Sequence to fold (356 residues):
Amino acid sequence: MTATAGDPSPDAATAETGDEPLVQVRGLRMDFPVKSGLLRRTTGHVQAVAGVDLDIHRGETVGLVGESGCGKSTLGRLLVRLLDPTEGSIRFDGLDLAAAEGKQLKQIRRDVQMIFQDPFSSLDPRAPVGDSIAEGLRIHGIGDRKAQTRQVGEMLELVGLRQDHARRFPHEFSGGQRQRIGIARALILRPRFVVADEPVSALDVSVQAQVLNLLRELQQQLDLTVLFIAHNLAVVEHISDRVAVMYLGEVAEIAERITLYRDPKHPYTQALLSAIPIADPSLRRKRIVLQGDVPSPLNPPSGCRFHPRCPIAAPGVCDASDPELRVVDGEDRSSSTAHQASCHLRAGDHQHLDPS
Ligand code: SF4
Fold:
């Protein structure tokens, strides 16, 4: 996947600790109860998000990547308060998202929006798309009918469609056009923070780059802060300032984009990167094939959650304790955008055990 939009902004990529992040996540957990039997008793919990810390700075795009079931979409839904966490905190512009109610919550609902993978399911098939896009304006009582129609027309043009498309129905559009409508719907309230949950995964490859470029342009034009979720590191490469890799409910590694792609530390990130084809046939990359499937989040492995699949796991260390997300050696430990990894051997305190 190649997107040809300009590179991520250097300002955002080097966001420093002086500014308080727009989004601050600490110790976030989300457990879903598993019910079984006639009486639907709770017999266990799926740990979808298992203690995540994450800062997202103003104007920054953070790519969040991981395999299906790693908890990335659940994390996205927690950040827009479609779900309430089991534990932990989310601060948006200094406000406690979980505690917000009344007027404060209404304002947060304007400021925080989500772009879904399947925009068709969030559009009313019996209503012209203009009505669906204007829904947020109606809910928040912004403008009269005429002003709302004007704003919808402007937004349609902003996402590369025409004003008269507002009168058409969802089934009259292609997949790429529907995603543009989904983006218009999310941006009509001029939010400050957007969670884009696999917004190009359902699109043809030829259309993916167009939608990625559009998102990048809109992010810069509207000064948006974005969490961009994808299951593929290639998709987020050209759109992200920083990239976080999730594995089984935890952040395995996070770094500025160039650092992560050039010098990944976590064995899981290295395996994901090794699967991305290189355009230049003279260059070769050794493919790291992981053994086995992702373990069940209902019963995650002890110690490092990645140890049953890790090619360099150290017995007695990796299966004994869960590594914390730590700043890797040589990085500025005071920076909230420093390269971090959760690996006993590649970050932090067990360097002497590194077998490589
Ligand atoms: Fe592999 Fe051990 Fe590092 Fe986990 S802690 S990623 S098992 S080396």
